[in-house]
Amino acid sequence: MADDFEGISVFLAVAEARNFRLAGERLGVTRSAVSQALQRLEDRIGTALVQRTTRSVSLTEAGEMFYDMVRPSAQDITEAVQAVRETQTRPSGLLKVTVSSIAERFISGPLLAGFLAQYPEVKLDITITDEEFDIVAEGYDAGVRLGEVIEQDMVAVPVSGEQRQCAVASPAYLSRRGTPLHPRDLTDHVCIGWRPRPDTAPYRWEFTEHDRDFELAVDPAMTTNDMGMMIRMACAGAGITFGMVETFESHVARGELVPLLEDYCPPFAGFHLYFPRRHRQPLKLRALVDHVRTFRKAEI
């Protein structure tokens, strides 16, 4: 039974990584060990589960069927083992969280520093990305995103209060080029835009007028996926940029940036820590949820 389960774990890792080396890294074994364990499993079942070529790994029809049937049970067993272990221990282990680059309150430091101090046996693996993907399929315990983009079947816990966006520019730029009074005026200005990756269009700036939401496709003179660079360019007088108000707060307070078009930028639902609904949540994740709730109460 132990050998059977080990073989299934290897198969699941290969099926999800579609790569023997990556599967081995995930399991902490060599590529050769992965190949041998998978071969023994296929021998016991009596059919090929994986189609191997020199360039790719894919599942056979039997492999796809086996994966769909085995994966839920394997997850239940993993959760059961973890739940039993946790009854005797404090929260521990690796907690993987994917976080939006603009979730300022979550990634600014104090919240996570407090969590690590309270639970020293938990190790955090934080991936900052604005890509949208299935956190379960990618092996994450939880994510932090704006509430409006979180799937309905997820549990969502508020991390921040309401959020608001606005445009900003340096006093030097505004002195040189003037101040836009309406979003449509941005077409006459130098804009600094954002996009998550090179193969996507720049983010369309969002505004509201007379309770009607609309998007503006500015033509950025510069586009980047790094909010820090956008801020530095705006502070240097290169143009107008757009983002979360709290991201700009310290620069506005120092007089480096000036908020613009605030009347056209009403508040909206803020950031949430989200995770799949399970009968048994890992103790390390429950600890993070409780910490977030306590942190939020202290802020309010």
If you had to describe this structure to a student in words, what would you say it looks like?
This protein is of the alpha/beta class and 300 residues long. It has three domains: 2-86, Winged helix-like DNA-binding domain superfamily/Winged helix DNA-binding domain (Arc Repressor Mutant, subunit A), CATH 1.10.10; 93-161 and 270-299, Periplasmic binding protein-like II (D-Maltodextrin-Binding Protein, domain 2); 165-264, D-Maltodextrin-Binding Protein, domain 2, CATH 3.40.190.10. Helices cover 40% and strands 22% of the residues. The strands form four sheets. Strands 4-3-5-14-6 form a five-stranded mixed sheet, covered by helices on one side. The chain has a five-stranded mixed sheet with strand order 11-8-12-7-13. Strands 1-2 form a two-stranded antiparallel ribbon. Strand 1 (50-52) and strand 2 (57-59) form a beta hairpin. The termini are far apart.
